[in-house]
Amino acid sequence: MLTHRRPEKPRPGDRVAIVSPSSGLPGLFPVPYELGLRRLAEEFGLKPVEYPSTRRMGSTPEERAADLHAAFADPEVKAVIASIGGDDQITVLPHLDRELLRANPKPFLGYSDNTTLLAFLWNLGITGYHGGSVMVELGRPGAMHPLTRESLRAALLGSGPYELTAATAFCDVSRPWQDPATFASEPVLEPAGGWTWHRPERVVDGTSWGGNLEILSWLLMADREIRPAEEYEGRVLLLETSEEMPSATEVFRVLRNMGERGLLRRFPALLMGRAKSWSFERPLAPGERERYRAEQREAVLRALAAYAPDTMAVFDVDFGHTDPQLVIPYGGQVRVDGPARRITVTY
Fold first, then answer.
1. What is the DSSP letter of 47?
2. Are residue 63 and residue 183 in the same domain, yes or no?
3. 101 and 169 assigned to the same domain
4. How far is it, in rounded angstroms, from Cα 240 to Cα 137?
5. Which residue numbers delimit the LD-carboxypeptidase C-terminal domain (predicted)?
6. What is the DSSP letter of 80?
7. What is the pLDDT of residue 1?
8. CATH of the domain at 232
9. Which pLDDT value is given to residue 144?
10. Domain check: are 188 and 140 in the same one?
11. What is the tally of structural domains in the chain?
């Protein structure tokens, strides 16, 4: 079975690379991006370093791969952080130098479309971190959420076990980045119902794999960065969905196909992120949002019943496209303690 190593973490005063492997949105929305850079410097004590395509929309896959190569190869850069996600990082994969990245392991933080690079590094035996983008978490209006800040600090600068804390309130409704008023106050939160446990009769210890469900479906479709099913035996599966808000039917079909491939039953535990249930394209009312999340949960349970009936699952975990956001190691150790209702990760 593939084993993973945790790259050495940066320390205050170190340089960290800021890259855009998916989309150059920092060029379109500089306010949250530059706010995120300031917080990296002022609250984390790190020195952000930009690359040619970081702020450029329409950069080629070759240009984005070159930025990643430069960031990982630079001995003065101690971590690599994605500015934001996107939808075409899969086109960067053919241009990546596996040996260069394997020889220069560094912590990489990102999520959404960055599931692609996390899976790529996972296959090189390098632990990454699912979460912590510059524009969203670091560039949050008003202030970083305390749970996000604490988790991101532990993942980026710390090491050792870290027990996840369920949020008591969360935000699901976004505000437009092009409106300066957005950044005058923090997002409005609503009560969170805590985590929901399914089959919590045992304790599972395993290294993690997964990420954004939509991106994983693309990797599966293209047969990119997916290993033989038996190599996922005993791992902890991470899944979450984005603001594109796939239907419950689509979620079930992706999981069904993972089941037909023999993948789903390999994971003794599943952490399912709280579903993003509002977008500018689909501004659902509160009751509709609650129903969307419930239908997604039912779809996941239906797939587990058919293909992985013994898998323990925890729903509405605060990772992925949610605020606050907990950073989850990708390829790192995760302990899911069902009887105690506790989740502990190792940064």
1. E
2. no
3. no
4. 16
5. 206-336
6. E
7. 80
8. 3.50.30.60
9. 98
10. no
11. 2
Pairwise CA distance, residues 298 & 320, whole Å: 19
Residue 330 lies in a domain: yes
Neighbours of 24 (CB within 10 A): 19
Q: What is the residue whose two structure tokens read 């302990």?
A: 335
**Which helix (DSSP H) or strand (DSSP E) does residue 90 occupy?**
none
Count how many residues are written for the chain. Answer: 347
Dig out the tokens for 332 from the structure: 């790192």
User: DSSP label at 240?
Assistant: E
Token digits of residue 226:
């997916």
Name the nearest CA neighbour of 41 among 77, 19, 13.
Answer: 13
CA distance 223 to 182: 40
Domain that holds residue 86: 15-159
Mean pLDDT by 10 residues, the chain (347 residues): 93 98 98 98 98 97 98 98 98 98 98 98 98 98 98 97 98 96 97 97 98 98 97 98 98 98 98 98 97 98 98 98 98 98 98
Residues 6+ positions from 291 with CB-CB distance below 8 Å: none
